[in-house]
Amino acid sequence: MSSKNNLTLLNLGCGSTVHSSWRNLDVNPLSEEIEYWDAKQGIPFKSESVDCIYHSHLLEHLTPEDGQIFLEECFRVLKPKGILRVVVPDLEGICKAYLSAISRIEKGDESAKMDAEWMRLELYDQTIRKTSGGRMLDFLRSNPPNKDFIIERCGQQVSPYLDKAPLESDSKSPSLKTPIHLRIKISLKIILQRSFWKNWFSLKFLGNEDYQALNDGRFGNSGEVHKHMYDRFSLEQLLTQIGFRTISIKSANESRITGWGDFFLDVTQTGIPRKPDSLYLEAIKP
pLDDT digit string (tens) for 93-115? Predict the structure, then answer.
């Protein structure tokens, strides 16, 4: 099942957050209900054939140029009156939270120093890191005293890191819920990526400096690094430039999309936002 009431619904860059009423696409499919898809290859649907498009925390992983091309693709495949729902980290919210922490430090609140440090990491670490998880992961694993602040910012998704519980993503192992043939395929891919001989030859022919630059480039293109950030004004301006209209800010629970409350894409089954630090914007193709 990939539609609701005969609507064509696309969940792009879905990760592990899926619903059977949607066509769920991702560059790293973790289950059989997810189709392989690379955002840089366009959207594999005919023009004006899709009713709704949803993507969460995907756009910031594209350069501004690639991001515009991707949103133009969204515009192309949407039907007239089709709805686009974009969810991204909220640059404005990050800046306000950082300045709020600085203000509390000025007033003598010692605990605010750790909050300010976390906000610095939110601003920069995801754009400059060279290893998976970066300094943010180190901070989470350090048993920080401001756990409640971090969870309020980022949601329950960070709780396992704060509790130091073992995570699948730590080892990049495929989920046990993933069908066995996909687990084997993913595991083989990991082994090949970590090939001793591949790395040995690269190091031998490139030298240390160029080899490190190659690894940095590979990681930069792995999909983890943030390559741009948006606030409500810049994102609205971009969507308007592309041709979208009736652009409005929503909450995690609010949408023009029919049956949104049944999908639990931006909220958990208990109604808690998955990523509270997000900007939710919806736009309509005229």
Answer: 999 999 999 999 999 999 999 99
Structure tokens at 50: 């899709």
pLDDT tens-digit profile of 66-89? 999 999 999 999 999 999 999 999
The rounded distance, in Å, linking the Cα atoms of 98 and 247 is 27
Torsion from C-alpha of 67, 69, 71, 77, nearest 10 degrees: -150
Q: How many other C-beta atoms are found inside a 10 Å radius of the C-beta of residue 65? A: 10
| Strands (DSSP E) found in the chain | 3-4, 7-12, 23-26, 34-36, 50-56, 78-89, 245-250, 278-284
Q: Which residues contact 37 (CB under 8 A, 6 or more apart)?
A: 12, 25, 26, 27, 43, 44
Helices (H), 110-221: 112-128, 134-140, 147-154, 159-162, 168-171, 180-193, 196-220
Would strands 3-4 and 7-12 be described as parallel, antiparallel, or unpaired?
antiparallel
The CA-CA-CA angle for residues 281, 285, 286, to 5°, reads 130
Angle at 82 between CA 78 and CA 84, to 5 degrees: 85
User: What residues of the chain score a pLDDT lower than 70?
Assistant: 1-5, 164-223
